Amino acid sequence: MTEILSAKKLAEVASLLLNKPAIVGEGTTTGAYSRFMTQIAQAVCNFYDGGIDGAATQSRVDAKCWFVAVTGNRSLPSTGGEQKSDTGSARLFWQELLDSVESLTAIADEHGARTLADLFYLQNAILSGGFIDHFPGESNVLEVVRTLFSAAKWESHIKVEYLESSDGHLDFG
């Protein structure tokens, strides 16, 4: 039997399957439910050029609660969910940075204290899955990051902003 689903009806079905799988008799085993939730998360992430970080898992505290860690670009709508720390990426960023310079002081000497501070802020943004605002002309953080091996990955955590000059025109640095 073929049925045409509206977006609203599809959302209702997906919600029912995620929230009350026993009612429809689907996904009642832990493995089946984990696969279904993981596939739903992957479908959403695929649309936003993101991905999942492992399969959906059941909470150790409340068996009714399930979680899946996702990463996306800045277009992925925020749900206010828990953010998983990305310590591996933060460590990798810091190692690449330290390997690329003689010392942290050398960064400040060559690019200024603001650039050095922005690199610390960037590491925290990578750790938390956020981003930093970068104002060309005030900091060379983007220039420094572009010298690193994983530059494209780190650049995704930098949002370029342009300051408006006193005459109302954009200042592109």
Describe the structure.
The protein is mainly alpha-helical and 173 residues long. The protein has two domains: 7-71, no CATH class; 87-163, no CATH class. The protein is 48% helix and 10% strand. The protein is built from eight helices and eight strands; from the N terminus they run αααββββαααβααβββ. The protein has helices spanning 7-19, 21-24, 30-47, 87-100, 104-111, 113-128, 141-145, 151-155, and strands at 51-52, 57-58, 66-67, 70-71, 132-134, 158-160, 163-164, 170-171. It has a two-stranded antiparallel sheet. Strands 2-3 form a two-stranded antiparallel ribbon. Strands 5-6 form a two-stranded parallel sheet. A hairpin with a 7-residue loop joins β2 (57-58) and β3 (66-67). α5 crosses α6 (113-128).
Please report the total strand number as a whole number: 8
**Mind describing the biggest β-sheet?**
2 strands, antiparallel
* Derived structural class: mainly alpha
Mean pLDDT: 78
- Number of domain units: 2
